[in-house]
Amino acid sequence: IITLRTYCDFLLCVTSLIYFRNEGSLTSTLRTLLFFSALMITLPVGLYFSSKAYVFEGSLGMSDRDSYFYAAIVAVVTVHVVLALFVYVAWNEGSRQWREGKQD
């Protein structure tokens, strides 16, 4: 079972790899955008179904109707976390590129 903590650790690891790459501005920006686009699609959907089946119905024994509701909340929170990580990485990437351009 892949937990939310595992996903968060994976996200932080990959975002740090993206952040510390020394590539061209356009290539780095495109990779960051594609990476977070893929996360935006896969992570909320994956956490929705896994939390519904394993956490809310399996562990907590909730009804089918209640588990849909709480799994949707997990998916929405995941979307917000991915968006916040994207803004953080994009902001730092832009600041880094601006500082490097200013020193030339």
Tell me about this structure.
- Belongs to the VMA21 family.
- This is Vacuolar ATPase assembly factor VMA21.
- One of its GO terms (biological process) is vacuolar proton-transporting V-type ATPase complex assembly.
- The chain has 104 residues and is mostly helical.
- It contains 3 helices and no strands.
- The chain starts with a helix and ends with a helix.
- The model has no long low-confidence stretch (mean pLDDT 81).
What is the strand and helix layout of this fold?
Blueprint: H1 4-19, H2 25-59, H3 64-103
Helix pairs in contact: 1-2, 2-3
Transmembrane segments: 30-49, 69-91
Subcellular location: Endoplasmic reticulum membrane; Endoplasmic reticulum-Golgi intermediate compartment membrane; Cytoplasmic vesicle, COPII-coated vesicle membrane
Keywords: Cytoplasmic vesicle, Endoplasmic reticulum, Membrane, Transmembrane, Transmembrane helix
Strand fraction equals under 5%
- For this structure, the quaternary state is single chain
Q: Based on helices, strands and strand pairing, what is the structural class?
A: mainly alpha
Task: Estimate the mean pLDDT confidence.
Answer: 81
Shape: elongated
Subcellular location: Endoplasmic reticulum membrane; Endoplasmic reticulum-Golgi intermediate compartment membrane; Cytoplasmic vesicle, COPII-coated vesicle membrane
Protein name: Vacuolar ATPase assembly factor VMA21
Organism: Catharus ustulatus (Russet-backed thrush)
Transmembrane segments: 30-49, 69-91
